Target: dTDP-4-amino-4,6-dideoxygalactose transaminase
Amino acid sequence: MTAKKTHLRVPFADLHRQYLSIKPEIDAAISKTIETSAFIRGPEVDAFENAFAKAIGPDHCVSCANGTDAIYIAMKMLGVRPNDQVIVPAMSWISTSETVSQAGADVVFCDIDPVTNTLDPAKLEACITERTVGIIPVHLYGHPADMGRIIEIADKNSLWVIEDCAQAHLSEFKGSKVGTFGIAATFSFYPGKNLGAMGDAGAIVTKSRDLAEGMAKFARHGGLRKGDHEIEGINSRLDGLQAAILNVKLPHLEDWTAKRAELAEKYTQKLAHLDALTCPTTAEDARHVWHLYVVRTKDRDGLAEHLKAHNVQTSINYPKALPFLPCYARLGHRPEDFPNAYALQNEGLALPIFPEMTDAELDHVCTSIEKFFRA
Ligand SMILES: *Cc1c(COP(=O)(O)O)cnc(C)c1O
Model:
């Protein structure tokens, strides 16, 4: 039998393959949690908080229910209030901006750099007013934001920085891991993230003991001991099953990240010669962790359709930059306000990339893309 290349289906991601690669460990961790009924808090949650703090760098890790809550909890404990302004990049997942509104503040969008797709420091100062209290840079797609210049501007203006690291576990800027620059950094372990649970999960890391304690309290009904509600909080906990799964997966993260980088390099080798396509690049001194491999082309929708016809699943992250979403229509933003975010929304296409992806699958994606541009 000869292999029928045209019948190869390339999924955008394949979580089941990852599960199969570590099935005995995962199954044992899940059974153990069930056998011991350690569903809320418990040894797995404590162990994960310790291991994750060690993996990223800051001393403290506060786990919570998801990456969105993580941003909200951090902002609440930094004292964000009505009438405050918080600056976020114009291209991100909605969590980055909706939490600003949930915390009671006003969101201010800043355009992105057209090469790194992260908050553009050159446009940051123009966004600062006397009402600004903080900045939330996002390490989009796994590429670190320019934390050198962002921290410099934040310090000069006495603003806090919360790093949104939801897509950037183990990413580095100038040799330091993302998550070590701001006063706090938030992570998501949504199943499809570089480190994913089997449900929702999130965490915040911080160098500040006081902030960590405040955030842990807030996430657990305002008190760390039963019946002891020092403040009003919310219920946002990492559950024992998810922690047990994350404890199995965390030791694999470095290898999985290296695999993503290998795939990204192969993509670029095979696609860089196409004039009508722009491959993503990595800034000098940056470690890109390739949550997404996002190419750009003028006929993005045509390419996506063509790839779908060739059984290649792609994704648009995101079809509308934040300022152009219906929920922000009240702000009256126009494309020319955020030209780089607007171009990315129209030209960006994320190709399949996941650690278990095979060379045959990557070849099929690249051959299909070449066919599109040759036609
Ligand atoms: C996924 C994501 C989040 C939110 O994480 P959840 O765990 O899904 O709540 C926040 N910010 C960015 C940039 C993300 O990609």
